[in-house]
Structure prediction request, 242 residues.
Amino acid sequence: MKELWHWHSSRLQCGATVARWGHFGAPVLLFPTAGGDAEEVERFELVASVWPLIEDGWIKLYSVDSVAGQAWLNQSLAVGHKCWLQNRYHEFVREEVVPAIRNDCRTPDIEIAVVGASLGAYNAVASVCRFPDVFRWALAMSGTYDLTRFTDGHLDDDLYFSSPLHFLPSLEAGSQLDALRRRFVLLAFVQGRWEDPGESWRMAHILGDKGVPNRVDSWGPQYDHDWPVWREMLPRYLEELL
Prediction:
């Protein structure tokens, strides 16, 4: 029930891979962590954690290379190029990955759920906020939402429009905000090692200020910012949100 799709993205100016698990069900796009490829979520057993949902036809699970995430980890790249690539990555998801998923589902207007952990959570929330006409809800686990921490405070147009923390407060009334207010974002975080709970609360406050339905769940100090807790979170929240 697994397939890999490969193509060259003119937007990213490099090759791209999408992985799919399942044969039927609601489409769920799962972003990898920073630097991860499309199969990272399988290697770290996130796919296995939701296998009953896949096998029983509740979901079709998709994942895509974290091209922009790999750039953020590359110290040799200029900050401006990283910001440019992050913006283009979101455009790639909307204009290339979404049509591929819809074609696979044989439903041209099907809405897609988005999920991610760490930097993948950022991409999940950004996808819903930028493209609420396509993405119906986001599950964000242990999210890192302010990428200016990687730019020494630099915020150009590419990063501004890629970052919900920055563009949402200025988003004016209109079709995008109207659509976004019909969506839902679930922000789950832990209080153990390597996590900053303030990131999730800041994101929740900005969503709430714009009237976007959201919820924040804390998993306590016994959990760390790491794969074991995400393997617990993912099936529990998918069963709730489907």
Observations:
- The CA atoms of residues 95 and 152 lie 30 Å apart.
